[in-house]
Specification:
Aspartate Aminotransferase, domain 2, binds pyridoxal-5'-phosphate, alpha/beta, globular, 37% helix, 14 strands, 392 residues, 2 domains
Length: 392
Amino acid sequence: MNEIHPFFEPPAPKGQPAFAQPLHVGRPNIGDRRKLMARIEGLLDRRWLSNNGPLVQEFEQQMAGYLGVKHCIPICNGTVALELAICALGLEGEVILPSYTFVATAHALQWQGITPVFADIAPGTFNLDPAAVERMITPRTTGIIGVHVWGQPCAVEALQALADQHHLQLMFDAAHAFGCSHGGRMIGNFGRCEVFSFHATKFFNTFEGGAIATNDDALAEKLRLMKNFGFHGPDNIIYLGVNGKMTEVCAAMGLTGLESLDEFMDINRRNHESYARALAGIPGLRLIEYSRAEKCNRQYVVVEVAAEAYGLSRDETVARLHAENVLARKYFWPGCHRMEPYRTLYPDAGLALPQTERIAPRMVVLPTGTGVDGAAIETIGGLLRSWHQGAG
Ligand SMILES: *Cc1c(COP(=O)(O)O)cnc(C)c1O
């Protein structure tokens, strides 16, 4: 998801907004500043700023250990990581993905001349419906990209069975899912590979950054070469590569953030519980719950607005929140298939996406993270409750 600031001017308040300062979705989580600064001093002293420096190497080791995966290759951002993974897996023709995702998942395919084929999400989830995926398979299909939307694992096993049956590659856009588990195993271990984003707004950030996790040695080797122009030794190029390297300063941020990961997770858990209390019993508002059995970063506080029961539409609700300086977002509205270039290229895509079309206009994402506390959440809950009463 992109930085909030370029898109959002808080609207001029009519009266006094409930919050003097805007509350953002995806306000960056930052670890211990002194440790970050010490790492930055060190990299400046070494004059080793990029090209697989010691901080990137340490970051790579630590991530792989944390995820319990053989390889976790740092990349300059999540979108380039997706493109590298797509390229290294040899995807071409058509690749199936959800429309209910951030547009970068689709762009990464289209940018390489691959046709993104949008499949619907399953009712009651926000993730790909394996039955819908199966309906979209054609002789041109080479792969499936599952997205773990909100950090909730998609139907990993069913998608893997489908991929095996039809000889397709399966990879995951795990941009939301760093620190999340599925069946007790960390996300990062599924499919051929999984791609993380460490963008500033994500649960865990390296300013900009990303990574590709895989248990496949040969794929990891290929990705390592491809992210560095295809260099194999100083004068030898053996692949069409790109510049996908992570810098040392980003790894400094990553190493520092990893040390605070449990704290970020605790804050998000506490905030989510506060939201559950603050929104309890408001007709027409449903807070999306996360599995208690799994590790989960709870970076997204997602509410479904049933306009009939609540009395306000999702868009009216968001407008009112913005007027109070609560800069809620409408993720993922209207869905990739209704954005350019896809709406022009594939004008009928929506016909196969009834759940996506139903869900996308109902969802609101509320602010959480280290910049939000229990008192703020109570205030937000109080506003949402009063608008229902006011509307009713
Ligand atoms: C953020 C995001 C990306 C892109 O990651 P960047 O690091 O911003 O390039 C891709 N997919 C999803 C689902 C995302 O939320």
